[in-house]
Amino acid sequence: MKKVIFPAVAMLFGGLVAAPAQDAGTVAEAPPAAPYQKVSDLVSLPDFVPGLGQLFVDPSTLPAGPFLAYDHDGQLVSTVYMIPVQDLNPDKSFDDLEAPGGTVDHVDVYYNAGHPGVEVPHAHIILWHVSADDEARVAE
Predict the structure, then answer these.
(1) In the prediction, which pLDDT does 36 show?
(2) CATH of span 7-138
(3) For 71-90, what is each residue's pLDDT tens digit?
(4) In this predicted structure, what is the pLDDT of residue 101?
(5) What is the pLDDT at residue 25?
(6) DSSP one-letter string for the chain
(7) Which residues contact 91 (CB under 8 A, 6 or more apart)?
C-alpha cells in the first residue's frame, strides 16, 4: 500500500496529534464497547486487514468513522478516518474529529480507490497511537 501525503489534509488533521484522549481506556483493547461493531461483520472485508489491523466502527459514523484498529493481540494501534475524496472540498468540513485511542504519535494519509464499506475513492487518515516502528504489529 503506497502512502501519498496530501499536504492540505495533513495540515487539517495535524491538530489531532496534540489533542487529548477521550475515554482512551475504554477502547484500548478489542473489542471496544457498543456502539462499535467489528467491520468484518458489517461488510465483506477480512477480520484482519494487513496494514490496518482488526477494525471496529460505529455504523452511524460511516463512511468517515472513526475506525478503531487493533493488532493481533487485541491492542489498539490506530484510529482511522476514511474521508471520501468528493467531500474534500470548500463546501464540506470535518469538525471536532476525535482520537478516541488517546495520544497520537504520528499521522499517515493516503489514497484508497474504494473497498467494501467505503466503495468510493477516499483518503485514509491514520492516527497512529504507536510509534512508526510498532506499525509492523499490523503489517501481516
Answers:
(1) 96
(2) 3.30.200.270
(3) 999 999 999 999 999 999 99
(4) 87
(5) 58
(6) ------HHHHHHHHGGGGPPPSSHHHHSBSSPPTT-EEHHHHSS--SSBTTTBEEEE-GGGTTT-PEEEE-TTSBEEEEEEEEEGGG-STT----S---TT----EEEEEEE--BTTB-S-EEEEEEESS-TGGGGGG--
(7) none
Residue 114 and residue 135: Cα distance in Å, rounded? 22
- The answer to whether 79 and 52 are in contact (CB under 8 A) is no
CA atoms of 112 and 36, how far apart (whole Å): 23
Q: Which three cell numbers stand for residue 106?
A: 504520528
For residue 48 the three cell numbers come to: 484482519
Task: Tell me the pLDDT tens digit for each residue of 99-124.
Answer: 998 899 999 999 999 888 888 999 99
Block residue for cell numbers 461483520: 41
